[in-house]
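[09:14] KT: can someone run the structure on this one? pasting the chain below
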Amino acid sequence: MRRLAWSSWLILFWHQGLVKAVSKVQLGVYVRNIDSVDTRLGTWVGEIMLYTNYSQADFRGDTPKVSINADRVVSVTKAQHNLPGGVVQAVQHLHAGMYFRGSFELFPFDTQILYVNVVLGESSPSDVLLEQWADKTDIASQVKTNQFRVASWAVQFAAPSDSSSMSCITSCAYMKISVERSHSGYYYFNCIGIPFVIVTFALVALFLPLQPITPRIMISFISFLGLSGHIKWILTLMPPGTISWMLADMLFLEAILCSIIFGNVVVYRLFLISETEARNLDLAVRSLLLTALLLGQTLLICFYRASWPLLWVMLGSMFFLHASFVLWFYAAAASFEDDESETDSGRRDLDRKTYEMVSQREFHIGVCDGAGDVGDVGDAVF
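[09:31] RB: done, structure tokens below
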């Protein structure tokens, strides 16, 4: 009897509209193309198809309105088909521009996340839910933009009552598209290859003779200007204020160039004091910077996720060794200069004594020639 009573009350509430069944709308999201991705402004433009499938009886003559949360919609084309059994299928063809939050910490090894946010508007949050239409959910294998290629994608649906990270007033769906750099060789050549060649030119100049020093200084300074100009162009690929792997690599290469310029000046200054120690210092600096460039670039590329800790360790080690070499060879040159000074002083004393002895001998000979006997010479000398 109790079950019968509850069933009667439930049927009564149903007919009175107090209890409503949940209406479902199947949603398919097909990204036909990604027209462009502007990483500097954080915007992207895509061609998107929205497919919906629902029963007309669930909406009492109304049509569920499915839309995209977009910054701007360039164009919209809609079509609807009524199938037997009261099933309605609709499609929207949109060109829309949307924002995305870029992540450039690993540039040019970065991966960007693009979102297609679909919401169900003008419907009660509690009686309409979106669910995936698997046959109509996909993304094109080829996209128009040359910068990126699609690495992966996923679709997530959420109801208003869900306690997930997605916050929706009505039922909504998110398509998450992961894109990565499509032509990695282009970025490796411009962001790694060209800066490496510029620094290599300055490093090769260390094999030139110390005298004259002008070609060394000119080549290293021109390399410094070339790298600075190239860095300015690379920064235009990212939003202002971005801290990325590329910045760490550029700081490392700039430090190598500064060490080359400083090394040329120090070696030439030492050359004026001691040619031998200057050539030894030049060989040590050349070996140090060549090893630092090859080893540092290899570590930064292989362990790009830990680029900043590696950068500080390498810069500290390089500057410490460079300063140690300079102090060591300058101390050796100063010690050699002191020894040479003492030798010169002793040589001058010896020359003075020799001169005095020779002078006395010449005077003795002259006296012997003019005097009559030895006794007179002895008296004349002593």
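[09:33] KT: thanks! The longest strand covers residues 23-38.
[09:34] RB: yep, looked fine to me
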